[in-house]
Every structure is written in structure tokens, then in C-alpha cells.
Specification:
Elements lengths: L7 E6 L3 H14 L3 E5 L5 H11 L4 E6 L2 E6 L9 E4 L3 H15 L6
Parallel strand pairs: 1-2, 1-3
Antiparallel strand pairs: 3-4, 4-5
Helix pairs in contact: 1-3
Length: 109
Amino acid sequence: MIIKKPAIFIYTFRPDPGVLKEICAGMEEEGVFYEIAEQTDTTLDALAWNAANDSMLGCGIGICEQEIALQIKGLKLGHNVEYYCCPSAQDSRRLGANGARAVKKQALR
């Protein structure tokens, strides 16, 4: 039997390594697990929406090259909680932390 831990899913398509690293660091700071999976979908909204709906925590992050988005299960496709195009390291870390904080029901940064 395979048991998976609750985690925020990060679905990516050719992600920028620096952006991905900072997003993960933001979630680690908040103490929430995450899983990264490379996808064939090339639209940011679909990546984020699918990640949120596949995660048992109901929170997902999509990364498509230089764009990132945070999505919560129950929101419509394209209605992201947070979105950045060409994010700075601070923006990326904040998005990761906000995903973790949303799961923990805390105020976003």
C-alpha cells in the first residue's frame, strides 16, 4: 500500500530553476510539504488549476517558464490567488509562503 503525505502540488512546464528554488524555500519556511511534477500542459492557468484540484490540501502552484501562479481548489480556471510574470526572488518566495499559509489558514504576506 502506498500512502502519500498531504502536500501542495507544484506542476511545471520548463520552469526557471531559480524561481522554482525560491518557491520551494518559501514553503519550507512555513513547514508545509510539497511535490513537484513536470507536466506536458503549456498553459499556466491549467497547470495551477490542475495542481490545486489534484492536491489533497486543495492548493497548487503552476510554473510555466517565467510565469507563476497560486491557485486554490474551488476557484474557477484562470482566477488565481496570486500571479507573477518574470518574478523576482522575493516574489517567488512570497508565492510559495502564501501557498503554505493558505493551507494553514493564516493571513497571506
